[in-house]
Amino acid sequence: MPAGALEQAVYSGDFETALASLEAMPAAGRKASAESIEKMGQIMRSSHWQGSPYARLWGGEAQAAQYRALQAAVVVCMEPKALLDHASLRVALDQKTVLALCKRFGIDATSWRAALQQAAEARLQAFAAHIMPVQNLVAAGLIDRPQGDEYAIGLMALPRALSRLTTMDQHFERDPGLYQAVLRLFGVEGTGEHNLSAVDKYNHSPKNSWSYIFMEGAVRGEFTRAQLLEKTLGTLEKDWPQFRAGWFSRFHETLAPDADEMAPFAARYLGLCHSRIPPTVALTLGALKTLQAAGHVDGASLLAALRPAFYASAKSQVEAALKLAEAVVRREPSLAHEASAVVLCGLVHEAADLQKKIIERLKGWGVDDAAKGELAAYVDSVAAVNRPALAALLGDASVLAVVPVAVEQTPTGRAGDGPMDPLDASRALVPIADAAELVERIAFVLENSNDVDELERVVEALVRMAPLPEALVKQCAPVVKRARKLLHSEVPARLARLLVFVTSGERLPDLRDDPRRLGLQKPQADEFLALRIDDLVNQAARGWGLAPLSSATHTRGFIDAAVFVERIAAYQARGAEPIQGEQVRGLLRLAPVQGQGAAALQEKARRLADVPLVRALRHALGEDGVAIPTKADQVQEALFAAAARVRHPGGDDPRVLAVLGDFGPDGANAAHYTWSVSSRSSTYDGKTYVHHDFLLASVAVPQDTPHALVAVRRAGIEGDYDEALLRYAATVLPSSLESFFAAGCREIGNNLDWWEAQWQNRAYLVPLLDPSVPVTASQPMAVLLLALALAGKEPGQTALAVDALVHAYTEARLDVPALGSQMRALLASSLVMAKRYGKSLQAAVRADARLAAPAFDVLCEMLTADAENPPKDLAALMELLLEIALSSQRALPPTTLGLLKELKLGGKGRAVQKNLLALGQASPART
């Protein structure tokens, strides 16, 4: 309950009594009241939270009169900037009242206002989401409207700060000048989190979307439609990144200007054809169609502007540009040759049907000698199915004599001999021995945390060299200073903890020590590095001068078993017992050994002192008859679970399972997964949308699984926001990435349409590029991950998948039938789009002609996805199949021909079907 006259007056909402109480205090008393005022303000703000205990203690939600009394006390007793903390919900004071308060209590009003202005602008510079109190102060007239970009970015974020039941109307009512202020949003790009696209995408209320706000402002007469159109075009001309620019192209669609409204800006629309942002070009072509039909642009100017559009990667845009060129020629036949010179550029597009349309237009319009000279350059790039028509247009049959691409049906043309040995000499991590190199590598890892191999080298050196000599400590001072500034970044923070300890003895807390994470048991991607650093700090404190047991000797986290045996021998010779967590991590990282090498290592291991670690090691190396304790403690269970994973990569260990039982996936048993797709529908704004959820089923990992069972807990992670942490998680059990790839399948499979920007997911695809990773039926989640990623929407992620496909095939580590089977099953599930698969496979063939062979086989397999109800975009796959068949002179298998005859297709699909069947009847020589 309130205590003291001031608190009682604030609680009662008695403004004059509060002022009288303040007047009765000496200056020191007012200053001392600041803590009490701050606490009351916190309680008042909390009283508005649903379910807050403060609402009951306060007697309900705080009222305007109470805020007025409180804020008056803040003005009198506290620094001007303190008012920001009490203005987030409402400002109950006005300019006149504050001036009176300043006069009454001897405060310099000008200085007070200037200090508040400075504090408000500094708050926005620190974080744009602090806009609410700043805007409330502007509306109350207590500060001037800030003019910097930070204020505009804050305004962008303002709708997201509102509750679902609150709209922006109240802000416009309190601040009439806000309408003109928000026009600045058209000229400010914003940040990754706060931009118009992001704010509207994650908005709770349609009436708080900026698109609605601007349109409603036009209805109310605050803006003119011409004003909004001019500013929209001005922003589109800046070519901001596509996600941010996309809001303005969508707003143009919402504004829906007619021909007369767009006519004054015709020249600007013509200029937008040069934009590098596809949605902007699409908008422009639609607008130019309207302008051309209304006679607001002349044919010559339109043709000149259209040339860049014919180089677009989006097929629909080239088609739209072609239709515009057709309209020009219909209206002005004299421009036919000029139109031909422009549209022939579209032959660079990979779509065979689009090339066919362009060649037909060129034939109808005619081409002059200059155009023929340009056309000759496209002979090698046009689809084989279109070369006869192009030859006829050029009057040169020699273009048909192009040498076909050689497509082998067996992998004889591959450069590799299967997955590379993970212990190949080229993959060795050379220990750091030089102080200068150590400092340089520390600096590198702090700024390049995705390089987990370099992280391994640095961590190994720091522990092995501890305690560091004084000279080296001084050399490390600059990187220590830098490391302390990165304590909120996942991987750099963990390296910083080890670095600070070995240079000063100071033990820094881990990010996982945050009180908000206490009691969190669910497996998390950050635990594997964090707990390892805990153990390495403890080992460094002992100053053994030995390399950690878990330090990788080769890339991807692998440890050479021979080196591991030597490390154990060194520990035993020194009388040092390795930390238990390090024993488990080291075992999990062993590269599996077989044959004579295994026998030799088993013999060396038997010479070591007989301790649980050595017995587990001997089992991991394949020795039979090693005693597995039936009453093992938690550490021994973890050691033999790790040994089981190394002895049987991707398989189950019957002996460990029989004696110790099932620990969960990647314990005694390997992790196994099955997948399915679940469909659900939802209705929004009168439209029904179908959503497909990618589901993975496996044995669950209990949340309370001991941290000693490292691999089991890794099988339980479900993604993370930090790419470096995910890359590190892949090194926990490098000999079997099945559970890691499964997590990638879950994340990528549920974000194929890039609904959310999850750039960190590239970490799941990077191992597919590694020459030591098999993409075969022995690791089905690797195959499934590749199949999913090839169907993605985001160009960068898909390009990574295409690179992985090319490398895996040419290095002879890809199981093509397994990939085809997964792609067929995904296509049948409706989760993926056939046209995306066609685009990815075509990109792979263009990158390396040897990929034509597996692409052909995979395409034939995918045609069987759903013969009764084929995908609407199946023609995209059939076109690529036709192109490869023609280029390679390869006949379709009888089963594929039989299926083609049964498919019920329409439109473009029927035409391609006819060509494929004709190709089969022609019986090419090569089969």
> What gross morphology would you assign?
flat
**Residue ranges: pLDDT <50 for 5 or more in a row?**
402-412
What structural class results from the helix and strand content? mainly alpha
Distance between the termini: 90 Å
Bin the strand percentage: under 5%
Radius of gyration: 34 Å
Number of strands: 2
Main sheet specs: 2 strands, antiparallel
Q: What strand line-up does the widest sheet have?
A: 1-2
Helix content: 55-70%
Can you characterise this structure?
The protein has 927 residues and is mainly alpha-helical. The protein has a domain at 432-513 and 523-546. The protein contains 50 helices and 2 strands. Strands 1-2 form a two-stranded antiparallel ribbon. The longest helix is centred in the N-terminal third of the chain and has 18 residues, at 109-126.
Architecture blueprint of SSEs:
Elements: H1 4-12, H2 15-23, H3 27-32, H4 34-46, H5 53-58, H6 64-77, H7 82-85, H8 95-104, H9 109-126, H10 131-139, H11 149-157, H12 169-174, H13 178-182, H14 196-201, H15 210-219, H16 225-236, H17 242-255, H18 259-262, H19 266-271, H20 278-293, H21 299-306, H22 315-331, H23 336-343, H24 352-365, H25 369-375, H26 387-394, H27 435-447, H28 452-465, H29 470-475, H30 477-484, H31 490-504, H32 527-542, H33 561-574, H34 580-588, H35 595-606, H36 612-620, H37 634-647, H38 654-660, E1 674-684, E2 687-697, H39 710-714, H40 723-729, H41 738-749, H42 762-765, H43 780-789, H44 795-810, H45 816-828, H46 834-847, H47 852-862, H48 875-888, H49 894-902, H50 908-922
Antiparallel strand pairs: 1-2
Helix pairs in contact: 1-2, 1-6, 2-6, 4-6, 16-17, 17-20, 20-22, 21-22, 21-23, 22-24, 23-24, 27-28, 28-31, 28-32, 30-31, 31-32, 34-37, 36-37, 41-43, 43-45, 44-46, 45-47, 46-48, 47-48, 48-50
